[in-house]
Specification:
Length: 164
């Protein structure tokens, strides 16, 4: 994945002044860390805006995407975190607000990125873009990745029989 310089710059800022680098320690989907997932959402968000010729606040779009899952815990193995899908946007927003100043769009993007799982939709087009990019990346990291692995297993099994 080619990272745009604006994404790289924002990652550097967040790693320098926040706990963002720590998101690499938590798995989001499949084997993808929250860190890699958030970067993917930022890149896909920029591509969506570009392809649709949408005028967006690029820095806000990137920051919202990078911080949308800033919940800072392992939701797979932590039984005290119930209803993660519904609750993590609020937790991510609270964590982000502790570490950086967020504008109104960024706050709304983080809080509403799980629509329609959470009932209130994003207000700004940047929020809608992240909502879509998050879903696309999540599918790629879970469903498509599993299919790819099943395919590899079949090929490896077939080759083992042929060479066996």
């Amino acid at each position: 994945m080619k990272l745009e310089q604006a994404v790289i710059d924002e990652i550097k800022n967040l790693c320098r002044y926040t706990r963002f680098s720590g998101t690499a320690n938590y798995i989001q989907h499949g084997t993808t860390s929250v860190y890699r997932h958030s970067i993917a959402v930022a890149c896909v968000s920029l591509r969506i805006a570009e392809k649709l010729h949408l005028r967006v606040d690029k820095r806000t779009l990137i920051r919202g995407a990078l911080l949308h899952d800033y919940f800072l815990y392992d939701w797979h193995s932590n039984p005290s975190v119930s209803w993660h899908g519904y609750r993590h946007p609020r937790i991510a927003l609270e964590n982000a607000e502790k570490d950086v100043f967020l504008n109104k769009k960024e706050k709304n993007m983080i809080l509403r990125h799980m629509f329609p799982l959470t009932p209130v939709p994003p207000v700004h087009k940047e929020g809608w873009i992240i909502c879509l990019a998050d879903k696309l990346c999540s599918v790629r990291e879970t469903v498509l990745r599993k299919k790819r692995h099943r395919g590899y297993k079949k090929i490896a099994k077939k080759k083992a029989v042929e060479t066996g």
